[in-house]
């Protein structure tokens, strides 16, 4: 009972609060069974509060009607990029909020506590606040590396494409994506092109 109470107290203190499966379904335009399936395979981060699953609001994809990006295009580009690069890929806004699912999450991310997942969101915010426009690998809170490229619409920055869940060079681990030097270079070279593809393929 005490463990449940501690979980509830920890959950209630999370930035942005928690959503029910029904609220997540409405936000994403999917049914509740799909929400649970996505939580089960790691595509959505979820925690148990009592008998109910709850979802940190900051980890749920958001795509407002005023966004210059097309949601379907963003999801499709992120999914293909994750498959081709062999890494986690997520597209975020400039506040670090996920605009797509986290595609191809590594096992370490899947198993992360709510606090650790929130640390990832904070890292996404930090990446967005940097003035460095050249993608570089950075080690984060979950001890794996991420790299990012800005998405531009005209002269305006509107988001980030982030590749992550990558083992630091020469530090392979079974619960993260292990890349060769050539594969790491491919990730860095590809990120700006992926960011451009999100915009080039957007619907008018």
Main attributes of the structure:
204 residues; alpha+beta; Arc Repressor Mutant, subunit A; Beta-Lactamase; 2 domains; four-stranded antiparallel sheet; three-stranded antiparallel sheet; 7 strands; 41% helix
Low-confidence stretches: 1-15
- Number of distinct helices: 7
Strand order of the largest sheet: 4-7-6-5
Instruction: Compute the number of structural domains.
Output: 2
Question: What does this 3D model show about the protein?
Answer:
The strands form 2 sheets. The protein has a 4-stranded antiparallel sheet, sandwiched between helices. It has a 3-stranded antiparallel sheet with strand order 1-3-2. It is globular, with a radius of gyration of 17 Å. The longest helix is centred in the C-terminal third of the chain and has 20 residues, at 181-200. Mean pLDDT is 82; it is low at 1-15. It folds into 2 domains: 2-57, Arc Repressor Mutant, subunit A (Orthogonal Bundle), CATH 1.10.10; 71-200, 2-Layer Sandwich (Beta-Lactamase). The termini are far apart. The protein has helices at 2-12, 21-28, 32-40, 71-85, 107-110, 114-129, 181-200, and strands spanning 18-19, 47-49, 52-56, 88-92, 138-139, 145-153, 156-166. Helix 4 runs antiparallel to helix 7. It is α+β, with helices and mostly antiparallel strands and 204 residues long. Helix content is 41%, strand content 18%. It contains 7 helices and 7 strands, in the order H-E-H-H-E-E-H-E-H-H-E-E-E-H.
């Amino acid at each position: 009972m005490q463990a449940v109470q501690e979980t509830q107290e920890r959950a209630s203190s999370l930035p942005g609060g928690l959503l029910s499966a029904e609220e997540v379904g409405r936000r994403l335009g999917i049914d509740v069974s799909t929400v649970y399936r996505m939580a089960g395979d790691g595509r959505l981060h979820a925690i148990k509060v009592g008998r109910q699953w709850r979802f940190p609001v900051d980890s749920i994809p958001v795509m407002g009607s005023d966004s210059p990006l097309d949601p379907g295009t963003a999801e499709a580009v992120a999914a293909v990029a994750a498959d081709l690069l062999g890494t986690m890929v997520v597209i975020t806004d400039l506040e670090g909020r996920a605009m797509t699912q986290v595609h191809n999450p590594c096992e370490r991310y899947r198993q992360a506590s709510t606090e650790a997942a929130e640390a990832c969101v904070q890292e996404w915010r930090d990446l967005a606040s940097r003035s460095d426009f050249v993608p570089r690998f950075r080690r984060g809170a979950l001890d794996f590396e991420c790299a990012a490229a800005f998405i531009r619409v005209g002269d305006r920055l509107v988001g980030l494409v982030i590749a992550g869940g990558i083992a630091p060079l020469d530090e392979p681990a079974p619960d993260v994506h292990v890349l060769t030097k050539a594969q790491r270079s491919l990730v860095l070279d590809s990120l700006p092109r992926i960011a451009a593809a999100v915009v080039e393929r957007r619907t008018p």
